[in-house]
Design goal:
By secondary structure, the protein is mainly alpha-helical. Helix content is 68%, strand content 0%. It contains ten helices and no strands. The chain is globular, with a radius of gyration of 16 Å. The protein starts with 7 loop residues before the first helix and ends in a 14-residue tail after the last helix.
Length: 206
């Protein structure tokens, strides 16, 4: 954990800022702006890039991926610039929570993978790059998005221990736990061998 340099009121304020940044549902915004349909009625109904890809528009999916990652990174970088490391970690965690449980969508958001990778790149870019590479390797081997996400999340604490800085270790553990929580249904399907690969049709989750 970083040294706590600010009062609880200031840290709460940065948590609110991070949450609001993270809660912007770019997947919903982009698909509506491009007349690609209601994302809630497509595939899994998720607001993330993987489900946007099921609209058949790769550009929209890429834009969602980049913007969802950017909002996590921006939350960290702004807080670090204006307040310091303790605020940066709080804002990053809050951005992740905002993406997964956005107030605007009745707290039904995405699974947070892009936001997680974006904020890790901003917190410690060597760790972030290692997580991205881990995701890419796992996805290339399986062609399953959730397998890449879970493998990247599970590797984060190890990468922090190898590459540093150690001050983000606790946050890495928390984020890993949240990624696994958001992918609980995917884990069940992975164990059952029924998790679809990218390009396969996905039935709505009920």
């Amino acid at each position: 954990m970083p040294v706590i340099e600010h009062s609880s009121a200031i840290l709460v304020a940065w948590a609110v800022i991070g949450y609001l940044l993270g809660s912007v549902p770019f997947g919903m915004v982009i698909t509506r702006a491009m007349n690609l349909g209601n994302l809630r009625e497509i595939g899994s109904g998720n607001i993330g890039a993987t489900n946007v890809l099921r609209t058949g528009n790769k550009g929209a999916a890429l834009a969602t991926l980049l913007l969802d990652g950017a909002k996590g990174a921006v939350a960290v970088l702004i807080a670090r610039l204006l307040a310091g490391e303790d605020a940066a970690q709080i804002a990053g965690l809050a951005a992740f929570v905002g993406h997964c449980w956005p107030v605007w969508l009745g707290f039904r958001g995405g699974k947070g993978v892009a936001t997680f990778l974006g904020l890790m790149l901003a917190l410690a870019w060597p760790v972030g790059l290692a997580c991205c590479a881990t995701w890419a390797a796992a996805f290339a081997a399986t062609r399953i998005s959730s397998a890449g996400a879970l493998t990247a999340a599970a590797s984060t604490a190890l990468w922090v221990l190898i590459l540093g800085p150690f001050r983000i270790f606790v946050l890495a553990l928390i984020l890993t736990g949240l990624v696994f929580l958001r992918h609980s249904a995917n884990i069940v399907r992975l164990r059952a061998g029924t998790e679809p690969k990218v390009g396969q049709k996905k039935t709505p989750e009920r």
